[in-house]
């Protein structure tokens, strides 16, 4: 089984490798066709789907996966949000969402004013590779849930749906 994942982000790549441990997982530079910082649930989902479809197109007979992190307002509180998408060799699409937690007001304000969360987190924590490791979710859960662990859950939701629908066909 070959999987193209539309990113070189280490947290995302390692999550896919952990869940699909038998597969060959290959990173690719694809266009998410959304803002580099998605700001709604719909935009974040669209980014994941676009990455998955573009990844699927990079290989003749393989799977495409897209994972996208974003932010969304619930009322006036900004939250982290995350989505994943998987496209099969015969172009079936599966999607799954990940964890959501509120962002502190000081961080939320900077992101609402146009900054990218990854850049804000890098400056605020002085950790230059934070987006590849614990991520914002790791920082604001006191490292109980890392970005990789959060994406593992999303990828398991994709793999599980793939298995369920393959069985019922
Ligand atoms: O190379 P790509 O795959 O784009 O990796 P990325 O780190 O930029 O990841 P996304 O585009 O999916 O994420 C959108 C922004 O949110 C940032 N971010 C950091 N930690 C996050 C977390 O735990 N959850 C969601 N987004 C996070 C991320 O760094 C980006 O600035
Ligand atoms: Mg990005």
TrEMBL record:
Q: Which cofactor does it need?
A: Mg(2+); Mn(2+)
Q: Which reaction does it catalyse?
A: XTP + H2O = XDP + phosphate + H(+); ITP + H2O = IDP + phosphate + H(+)
State the SUPFAM superfamilies in the record: ITPase-like
Ranges for domain Non-canonical purine NTP phosphatase/PRRC1: 6-155
Keywords linked to the UniProt accession: Hydrolase, Magnesium, Manganese, Metal-binding, Nucleotide metabolism, Nucleotide-binding
Catalytic activity, EC: 3.6.1.73
Q: Which spans of this chain does the record mark as coiled coil?
A: none
Q: Which NCBIfam families match?
A: PRK03114.1
What is this protein's name?
inosine/xanthosine triphosphatase
- Originating organism: Gracilibacillus salinarum
Q: Organism classification, top ranks?
A: Bacteria, Bacillati, Bacillota, Bacilli, Bacillales
């Amino acid at each position: 089984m070959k999987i193209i994942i539309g990113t070189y982000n280490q947290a995302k790549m390692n999550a896919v490798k952990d869940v699909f441990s038998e597969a060959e997982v290959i990173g690719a530079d694809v266009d998410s066709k959304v803002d580099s910082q998605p700001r709604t649930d719909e935009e974040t989902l669209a980014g994941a789907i676009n990455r998955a479809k573009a990844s699927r197109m990079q290989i003749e007979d393989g799977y495409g996966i897209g994972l996208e992190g974003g932010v969304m307002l619930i009322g006036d509180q900004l939250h982290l949000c995350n989505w994943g998408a998987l496209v099969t060799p015969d172009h079936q699409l599966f999607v799954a969402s990940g964890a959501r937690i509120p962002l502190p007001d000081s961080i939320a304000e900077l992101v609402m004013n146009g900054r990218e969360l990854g850049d804000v987190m890098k400056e605020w924590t002085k950790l230059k590779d934070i987006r590849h490791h614990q991520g914002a979710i790791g920082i604001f859960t006191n490292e109980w849930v890392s970005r990789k662990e959060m994406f593992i859950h999303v990828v398991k939701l994709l793999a599980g749906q793939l298995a369920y629908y393959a069985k019922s066909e």
